[in-house]
Amino acid sequence: MTVLKTSMRNFFAHKGRMALSAVAVVLSVAFVCGTLVFSDTMSTTFDKLFAATSADVTVTPKSAEDAGDAPRSGKPESMPASVVQEARKAEGVKSAEGAVMSQSVTVVDSENKNMGPTSGGPTIAGNWTHNDLRSMDITSGHSPRGPTEMMIDADTADKHDLKIGDSLRTIAATGDHTAKISGIATFKVTNPGAAIVYFDTPTAQRELLGTTGRFTHVNLTAAAGVSDTELKQDVTAALDKGTYDIKTQKESADDNRKSVSGFLDVMKYAMLGFAGIAFLVGIFLIINTFSMLVAQRTREIGLMRAIGSSRKQVNRSVLVEALLLGVFGSILGVGAGVGLAVGLMKLMSGMGMELSTGDLTVAWTTPVIGMVLGVVVTVLAAYLPARRAGKVSPMAALRDAGTPADGRAGALRAAIGLVLTGAGGFLLYTASQADKASEGSLFLGGGVVLTLVGFVVVGPVLASGVVRVISAVLLRAFGPVGRMAERNALRNPRRTGATGAALMIGLALVACLSVVGSSMVASATDELDKSVGADFIVQPTQPGISITQKAADALGKAEHISHITRYKQINADLTTPAGKTVDGVGMSAADPTYAQDLRRETTAGTLSAAYGKNAMSVGEDFAKKHGLKVGDELKVAFEHGRSAQLKLAAITSDDGSVDNGAMYTNITTLEKYVPADRMPQNDIMFASADKGQQDAAYQSLKDSLAKYPQYKVMDQSDFKQTLKDQVGQMLNMVYGLLGLAIIVAILGVVNTLALSVVERTREIGLMRAIGLSRRQLRRMIRMESVVIALFGALLGLGLGMGWGATAQKLLALEGLKVLEIPWPTIIAVFVGSAFVGLFAALVPAFRAGRMNVLNAIATE
């Protein structure tokens, strides 16, 4: 009880000093809990949607599962309408209804503006059925009654200011269809961001499937007293089990959930990873706080020991303070985490992904995880300072107001740090020499961890040298004030090292990712310059769609064009001359001009020969693995088509990143063996301009696709900029998440300076008494802060560039061979660290300047 009272008294006596450490705990716990609440809410939203939209039992073609939501032909897999009648006759069926649905569509308004989501969600077109009434209500107008009418969802109508009577054009593989809005349907559950349009059944069949009398799935409702499982068994008995896939509502919902689980998991674990980094940085802040509090209470601890307190009691007293800090910070962090999740939901809604606070999900495990993490991390971080406090000798403490230095411990620490750093450096070197990226990545991960831990451990040793160098460059010009700032930073290398290490971690990751991102862009740009010969590239701007035949025909009418190249992909089963069959191989079919548009090196044969009659090419690794050579004949069974005997005319080099390992054949060959209605659409198209007509051809291609906003025409500079923008967006998102760790690190600098000012109160008073002005005092503290921040930045940026350079060596094995150091970013971060130091010193410097000189001198 005495230990608890002492701990409570000390905790509340130093509540101001504990505040910044508490903020670190609050932010770290909030990020973890916010991530869990946000991801659970997203899962709840999708679960409710999938449960509401799934029929009791759904029948789909078996082939639909392999084709996915975006079949290469652009037309969803379908089955004859007779299946509806067969299913309706099954025992236990109350009603059976045929449905049509396609995600390979684009919907535009009269000004050719895309009505689809900007968040990456799908645009879905289909027929209005009774099953849709499970999840939607018609809140305005009526359902479509003929080919000139369509209905849309209320979210899309609100987003684009659409109203009844407006005309929309639906672009599908079968052609374009224009209709007027006859009704608006509102979701009963939250729509995460899909755009949905409905037609009457004959129109949906004709415009989405290209024929009437077929459906993509059949929705079955169970009779009273019949469970979904029983209904599935009855329908399975009535239909051909090998032809159709039959699922209950739960099974359909589970399948749909799996389709988005990958995206949700990536978001969840990425955010948790950054929360872990924030926790790691927070540990340094807590260690520093308790180390300095222990140092300032050395006399108090000595008195406690002198009157009978044991080492364990002193140790326990400090740990109880940490426990109080952890509990207090974690409780606030859990609450802040819920608020953070709501903020993230609002942010996602602003980006086009709708999430409702009505679906806010706080599982009981979330606050438990937050509390356990916050408390455990805080107590563990305080363990070393508590152990150090317990070792304080009563007589030594009463003689001196500081904890005695342990030279042997410092030497041991330096030795361990050097060993860890050396081992990490060796692993990084081993990773850079690896022959396979998969093998090297393991060494890279080990090297990153060991060098990081090594730099943290050896930080106090490095501080002595690095701070002197930084001070010589920056502080000597400020005379005595600059020298005092340098000595203050060097006074306690352990404290300076720990404070700098907190900033080092975040900046090391920033530097590493900047190097990797810049190298990826530079490598891709270099590869494009070497490999791509086409002047223009045309590709879709939204996932799940291909270039329709009407759009391809429009491109073919563009002026000032020397040639246009079509490029399709299809799956096939390959049988080698040795009789071995390789299933599901992806093949690329293109026009012969593709050999001009993409300069592929060959190890045998010529690429142009692969576009000859009944000819093909394979990649170098595939040829070696199966013992193939030019002149061999392979049996190729095309998906949805017939088998062909194709002659191997070329073996392409796998030394590159564009189309690495691709197998090519002529589109004419593909058309010979695959029916026209099963032909895949173009994934991408290339074009080259007539000599001297680059600008005119560029504009002509754009004009030809004016009616199709889902496609983008790019010249090579546009394409390079697109790559750069995509990498930049990814890095900006990562930098934003790392910002939390950097904020915690800044709090660490503030805390260190604030406690340092308290520790040096008497010294500050004496300096003021002998003539140091308030302005000089504040400048001294600001300079000390800048030096500490630059020390952490120098270590972090150097370490991060080393990690990034090693990672690039592994990327080079995948064809990304250019190492580029983004010096503008590195320099900007380094200079920005100086401003971080200035900002962190504002409050401590202001408080130091306001000290009463006489009271400060009288302080013990």
Question: Can you put this structure into words, describing what you see?
Answer:
- The longest helix is centred in the N-terminal third of the chain and has 48 residues, at 249-296.
- The protein is globular and about 95 Å long.
- The chain has four domains: 1-55 and 250-404, no CATH class; 56-249, no CATH class; 459-532 and 717-860, no CATH class; 546-709, no CATH class.
- A hairpin with a 4-residue loop joins strand 20 and strand 21.
- The two termini are 29 Å apart.
- Mean pLDDT is 83; it is low at 400-406.
- Helices cover 58% and strands 16% of the residues.
- Strands 15, 16, 17, 18, 19, 20, 21, 22, 23 and 24 form a ten-stranded mixed β-sheet that branches. Strands 4, 5, 6, 7, 8, 9, 10 and 11 form an eight-stranded mixed β-sheet that branches.
- Helix 10 packs antiparallel against helix 11 (365-390) and helix 14 (437-474) packs antiparallel against helix 25.
- It has 860 residues and is an alpha+beta fold.
- The protein is built from 28 helices and 24 strands.
List the main descriptive attributes of the protein structure presented here:
860 residues, 10-stranded mixed sheet, 8-stranded mixed sheet, 28 helices
